[in-house]
Write a structure and sequence with these properties.
This protein has helices at residues 47-58, 67-85, 91-103, 108-113, 128-140. It is mainly α. It has a domain at 42-119. It is elongated and about 75 Å long. The protein starts with 46 loop residues before the first helix and ends with a helix.
Length: 144
């Protein structure tokens, strides 16, 4: 699980990069990422469990998941379904499920605690004035 405490600011919100703030930086041990396969969501799962599973599958953090993470997530969705469909619910069971989901970096706060930030793709758009000029040039047969 990530560090405890308040959710850190986004890297872009900081006045200077974290590595320049001093303190120790830990070297990263690297391995090779493997291809993953996402089994279909179990139709018997509680609708909320199905939503969480599909949300994880379609979210940016899925880029970091390996097959073991997906297996744990499926197991958690089974447990969450049993919890949600139960007449007697245990607060401890819910805390355990939420803690395990946190270790899979399901929420933005969880990801920011371990310094993973998901950003939107930047789509470069041509300004309208340039598009109009390019169309005009094309009509006149002028090469760019």
């Amino acid at each position: 699980m990530g560090a405890r405490g308040p959710v850190p600011n986004r890297e872009s919100d900081l006045a200077r990069p974290r590595e320049r703030r001093g303190g120790e930086t830990t070297a990263v041990t690297r391995g090779k990422a493997r291809n993953t396969r996402w089994p279909a969501a179990d139709p018997d799962w509680h609708p909320l469990a199905r939503d969480i599973y599909l949300g994880c599958k379609n979210s940016g953090q899925a880029d970091f998941y390996q097959q073991s993470d997906i297996a744990i997530l499926r197991s958690l969705m089974e447990d969450l379904s049993l919890y949600k469909n139960s007449r007697k619910r245990s607060g401890q069971m819910l805390m355990t499920i939420m803690s395990a989901l946190s270790s899979l970096l399901v929420t933005e706060g969880d990801r920011r605690r371990v310094r993973i930030e998901l950003s939107e793709e930047v789509v470069e758009e041509t300004p309208a004035s340039v598009s109009v000029l390019n169309d005009y040039r094309a009509q006149l047969g002028i090469a760019q």
